[in-house]
Design goal:
The complex is a heterodimer.
Chain A: E1 2-3, H1 5-14, E2 22-25, H2 28-38, E3 41-46, E4 59-63, H3 64-75, E5 79-80, E6 83-84, E7 88-92, E8 96-107, E9 112-118, E10 133-138, H4 146-154, H5 160-179, E11 182-193, E12 198-200, E13 204-207, H6 216-226, H7 232-239, E14 243-246, E15 251-255, H8 258-270, E16 277-280, H9 289-298, E17 304-311, H10 316-330, E18 336-342, H11 345-356, H12 364-377
Parallel strand pairs in A: 15-17, 17-18
Antiparallel strand pairs in A: 1-13, 2-7, 3-4, 3-7, 5-6, 8-9, 8-11, 9-10, 11-12, 11-13, 14-16
Chain B: E1 8-12, H1 17-29, E2 32-37, E3 45-46, E4 49-52, H2 55-61, E5 66-69, H3 76-85, E6 90-93, H4 100-113, E7 116-118, E8 124-127, E9 131-134, E10 146-153, H5 156-168, E11 173-178, H6 189-197, E12 204-210, H7 215-225, E13 230-235, H8 259-268, E14 272-273, H9 280-292
Parallel strand pairs in B: 1-2, 1-5, 2-4, 5-6, 6-7, 10-11, 10-12, 12-13, 13-14
Antiparallel strand pairs in B: 3-4, 8-9, 8-11
Helix pairs in contact in B: 3-4, 5-9, 6-7, 7-8
The chains are: A alpha+beta, B alpha/beta.
Amino acid sequence: MNAPEHIGKEVLRGAGIDVPAGVLVNGVAEAGEAARNLGGRVVLKAQIPTGKRGKAGGIRFARGEAEAREAAGALLGSDVNGHRVSELLVESAVPIARELYAAVMNDPTTRCARVLFSTSGGVDVEDVTPEAMRHAVIDIRGPFAPEAARALVAATGVAPEHVDAIAAVLVALYDAYRANAAELLEVNPLALTTEGKLYALDCKLVLDDSARKQHEGLFARAEAALGEQGTELERRARALGLLYMELDGDVGILANGAGLTMTTMDVVAHYGGRAANFMEIGGDAYTKATPALEIVLANPNVRSLLVNFCGAFAQTDVMARGVADAIAVLRPTLPMFFTIHGTGEEAAIAIVRDELGIEPYDAMDDAVRAAISAARQARPVVEARA
Amino acid sequence: MILRAQHAVLVQGITGKQATFWTERMRAYGTRVVAGSSPGKGGTTHQGVPVYGSAREAATEHALDFSVLFTPPLATKSAVADALDAGVRTIVVLAEHIPVHDVMWFLADARERGVQVFGPNTAGLVTPGEAFAGIMPGFSPTIFAPGPVGVISRSGSLGTLACLNLTRAGIGQSAFLGIGGDPIVGTSTREALRLLDADPRTTAVVLIGELGGSMEEEAAGDIALMRKPVVAFIAGRTAPPGRRMGHAGAIVAGSRGSGDSKVRALREAGAYVCESPSELGAAIQSALAPAHA
């Protein structure tokens, strides 16, 4: 999960990294008041889960209450990169001498933590040249040793009087990344002020969804701040423990396992069709075919249904049973196409053939082509599902 | 290490529901499941297999080669430590949703001991005609048959479909290596390729990748140098960017990890990349044809 900026900064503050004084607001008057209390020049930042906020107009500077109110009025309720702005972080602007980049992340190649540091901060990280980025690979079982951090910073040619302070920030960043089981904790820019102090001006925190149980409080705060995500059907699926994504096509897809579901979407596209959804019933969720199918069919754009099961851990007969049960209740009138292989396939095919009166396709590509062509021909007949 | 019929296999968490189901099938297929472990259940037998309180205890009575972990996500870090203390040589971690920091931790432990880990979030290993370890339908003759093609897959369901398509085309498999759908796994695509390249029974490789990460791109250099032909399929080329497609590792972040970038890297390395898994059988047939001429 991508935590919003102010949640990331709360984590940084907890780790002893300085963050500019700031207030989270959701109204124009509050923004003005915050600016007055903070005094001096302030920055108003839209709290939306997207990068490149500055370029997209999500960040504004102001001095004094009136300017802050005006800036807040322009930001609140506006659309930045497709996200509606409902909260602003109002912070004291700091006098920047130099913008640095610091991050810690999970690194699949080394299977270790990777600390990154650059003196070319403040720009999109993808625009930092590889030569300007310094790396340290850290064994997750141990600390980031201060001497290793100092060596990393000194190698960039930072003025010697700043090396220790920056190294201390990197060590604290690594500790916070570890303590919160983060996938990524990034500070860009890390500002070196004209007085030689260091402030985290922005923060990107990506939480590991698999570590939710150990960090429930942090997840709850991040989720509350992000508000409701996704479409109504996506939220319904999430509440049932199903991963569903609504797409813009017309072929409804029910397949098991992430890999097979993605492949089904790809093969639909390969033959010129468009998938209406991603719906995964992998892992233990293979027993949830009934509610999964209900959600797939609840999308009014679905014109044909393609069911593709390849059982390994997931037993295709259990999934076919769930599909048949859902169809018995919903009685959908749209054309349906099946292709079933793997664990339990004889029993699964018998259920589809005998109870639904549908002959499964032996070849997946034939089922895909049939579903695409049926979706093209079908009129939107949905009364039985109403 | 490729799983063989003679290898002694430990099942950790053997008394659970899924472990019970799959242990029965592994044994029926010919996998030498010599022991199981389950905290507090030491001294009993389950499915005719002696059960120990820990992998270490099992190791006092049995020489162990592989351990298959049916442990829940949050118990897996200590279960791997237990398996390492028991002296197993290869560990198969089936669990999904293990915190990634735990994964990095136990992979560092395993690396220090020179132990290979498959997974997490893998469906396991199958050596057709010999043994299987995990939650793959190794026992199904319509899906797996002995033969010359090594199969590497991040996904269990799609790997199953790939093997099924090969078997239907009359082409058997030397080994199925499920490497797992997590962002960080113990055996990368490249390491699995090297294992198959060194295996005398493997003459060609089917590589099933998916969007996310850079394992396929990192394997491209090895493919270019390999003598054995590689046929690939990459899932998730039409996935919307920035969304996590079921597997924790299946996400395009920024400009990295897209399906198309993987397809490009594999094609440049000389692999044949299919547009649908249905083409795998024919593609392998033509890749193997010169060798038979």
